[in-house]
Amino acid sequence: MNPSKNASIxxxxxxxLNEKETVIKNLPKIEEVFRVIEVIESxxxxxxxxxxxxxxxxxxxxxxxxxxxxxxALKTRIMILLIxxxxxxxxxxxxxxxxxxxxxxxxxxxxxxxxxxFGVNIKVSKDKYxxxxxxxxxxDNVIMYESGDTATENAILAASxxxxxxxxxxxxxxxxxxxxxxxxxxxxxxxxGIGGTTLTIHGKxxxxxxxxxxxxxxxxxxxxxxxxxxxxxxxxxxxRCPIEFLELELFKLKKMGxxxxxxxxxxxxxxxxxxxxxxxxxSNLSAPCEKIYGRPFPGxxxxxxxxxxxxATQAKGETLVHDWVFExxxxxxxxxGKMGANVTLADxxxxxxxxxxxxxxxxxxxxxxxxxxxxxLVAMLGAKGKSILxxxxxxxxxxxxxxxxxxxxxxxxxxVTNDKY
Length: 421
Fold this sequence. Notes:
By secondary structure, this protein is an alpha+beta fold.
């Protein structure tokens, strides 16, 4: 598996806290990473690709916002993480609204409620966030309004350079949050409870240490290939899968009839992630009796949930997929109907999918959201005949050389244009 998109972009932002050189290993060459690099360069950082996936960041002596690359910032939602970093550099600043996937009403209130514990005030105006404070302070009772990944990361970044003890309760314990903690741990920040929902952070006034850090592998990308194997009834070996963040997905698939083998566990290069190789086999699936739904870790990953939609088209019976987090994403699943899927929309959060069906080719424009677009590609791989997926920049935000890698395992697929809508 390639390294995680979500961990990569968070650690790129976190590197701005380090006053010395940071080397990030296992950094994916994807569009989302490129946009974040453009942003940190516009803040004054010097960057260099040292090797194929090894990236060096030399921090500026002084961060400046006057040349902020707004165009790049507006293409990625992760820009809101800059608040947790820039609060250590400025007492007053503004940032443009974040972009990224269009997935309904993605409120920033969890960020506001978390950061106000440290003395940070965020006002939302017409097209920007206005941020101010009169000095930052630690807090031993930060209750996260939601167990959101990015909001938890923002709180961690803010707390990491505030001397004293900060305690986050109901924090996200997801893979990208753990990677941010492990990265900051290398810089000297002390943590207790990494991987749990109560996280204690002992901040430092200054973070100044030459370090290198290897990004963990991406469980969402692993799920892409698992779902592709199921829909195409293929035997493939998916290497370097972070099993801690796939165990529940695989257990549910096993109960649906999915056949696979797993290797013995081994460690990722960063020394933390538990990896396995997964060998898949053609399987006859049955729909689960209960609904499939996502939850904050350790539940079924919310970003892995969409892949159960194309999988359900090949399962005997009716599957209920409940995407309670995002208003629009279940509606996007209806696009599978263009490929012959039997999909019924119950409401903006729930779809019923009956199977098995023979998927048919189609000509579809990618949905303005990464994972729903990826599942259209999964379904097309399982449809006999020629399909066309347009505006693939959406997918390339999160997957590196997906076309080439699919070709290497037998897919008849070609990237025919370089247009980016």
